[in-house]
Amino acid sequence: MAAVFTPGLKVTEHTIVLKDRRLPLEGEVLVRAGDLVKAEDIVARTELPGKVYPINVANQLSVDPGRLRDFMKVDVGTPVAVGQQLAETAGFLGFFKSESVAPVAGKIESVSTVTGQVIIQAEPIPVQIDAYINGRVVEVIPGEGCLVQANATMVQGIFGLGGEVKAPLVMGVDSPAEVLTADRLAPDMAGKIVVGGCYVPLAALWRAVELGVAGVVTGGFDYDEIKELLGYEVGVAITGGEQLGLTLIVTEGFGEIAMAPATHALLRKSAGRRASINGATQIRAGVIRPEVVVTFDDEAVPAEKYIPPEPQGLKPGDLVRGIRTPYFGRIGRVVDLPAQPAVLETESKARIMEIEFADSTRALLPRSNVESIEQ
């Protein structure tokens, strides 16, 4: 029988994590292969071209575009500051002069005697990429970035908002079935990543932002509250660029869903240690999952680049989670993988698998309705 492959996520106490740290365009790489780096260390940098500002200086001066150069006070290629004079007319007997000033700091790119426009390119925007995790540089991509490798605990979620954050983990609840309410958030959680349980209400998220909490990890969140939180709908494109004031990671799904006990236990075991989290999520081709990474800084990092093994497919005994109702969020183990398609309650045919849940109940689920959990 052919191997059974399903979408999967990683929830593991000890694994080798390899992070690709690349610039959006060519720049300078600041590290070498073999270097040990901290999460905050800048590994590569570049400059994004500044925005281009066209200014119709001829109109501002009320002169013919063909004579514009006669009135210019700066040449092409000259840096200018905000408010600096670009051009000025002589006026009448030294009075009634007209002038044009720079609206932004930048450099004069061109002066057109056809359109009368002066093009200013704003100052370049510096871009720096840090290592994101403590680890070792195992490969350098010239002009682009590097690969950083570390031994770590990793927990992947199914949905996230907000970008990369590096901060200590703290527990906000005692069990994976508890709600992280606003009254459980304290001022001493400022600058930290708070681990919740089955749900976080919108009021608690606003409270976390108010306190300066760096991130929240929760089992469930109300999908309908995302629009209220962001002010707009979240589509199927990648998330991670939202400016929330914190990063939110949902490990189980939408609604009030208890965090998987194994996930909660891993995060509790990592409490007090520094974590790197990222809410970036993409559900199309090239799946990106939100993540929590806690490195083992007292362990030696392998110098050779880790190459993950080829996927082996599901087999009896593997851990999976339902991703469709009525078994959404429930975790169990594969008991059997029948080779022949079965008729479902909807009277359609599909390849199925038999799952045994933690309470010893069993169910037959379409293979497309589960995801594997790598431990």
Write structural notes for this entry.
Helices cover about 10% and strands about 40% of the residues. The mean pLDDT is about 90. It is mainly beta. The longest helix is centred in the middle third of the chain and has 10 residues, at about 200-210. It starts with 7 loop residues before the first strand and ends with a strand. β21 (about 320) and β22 form a beta hairpin. The strands form five sheets. It has a 16-stranded mixed sheet that branches. A four-stranded antiparallel sheet has the order 5-10-9-6. It contains five helices and 27 strands. Among the domains are: about 50-120, OB fold (Dihydrolipoamide Acetyltransferase, E2P) (Beta Barrel); about 160-290, 3-Layer(bba) Sandwich (Glucose Oxidase, domain 1), CATH 3.50.30; about 320-375.
Topology:
Layout: E1 8-22, E2 28-29, E3 36-37, E4 42-48, E5 52-56, H1 57-61, H2 68-71, E6 79-80, E7 85-88, E8 99-101, E9 106-111, E10 117-122, E11 125-130, E12 135-141, E13 145-156, E14 159-161, E15 164-171, E16 193-195, H3 202-211, E17 215-221, H4 224-230, E18 247-254, H5 261-269, E19 274-278, E20 291-295, E21 319-322, E22 331-336, E23 342-343, E24 349-350, E25 352-357, E26 362-366, E27 370-374
Parallel strand pairs: 1-27, 15-16, 16-17, 17-18
Antiparallel strand pairs: 1-13, 2-4, 3-12, 4-11, 5-10, 6-9, 7-8, 9-10, 12-13, 13-20, 14-18, 15-19, 19-20, 21-22, 21-27, 22-25, 23-24, 25-26
What's this, in brief?
With 375 residues, the protein is mainly β. The protein is built from 5 helices and 27 strands.
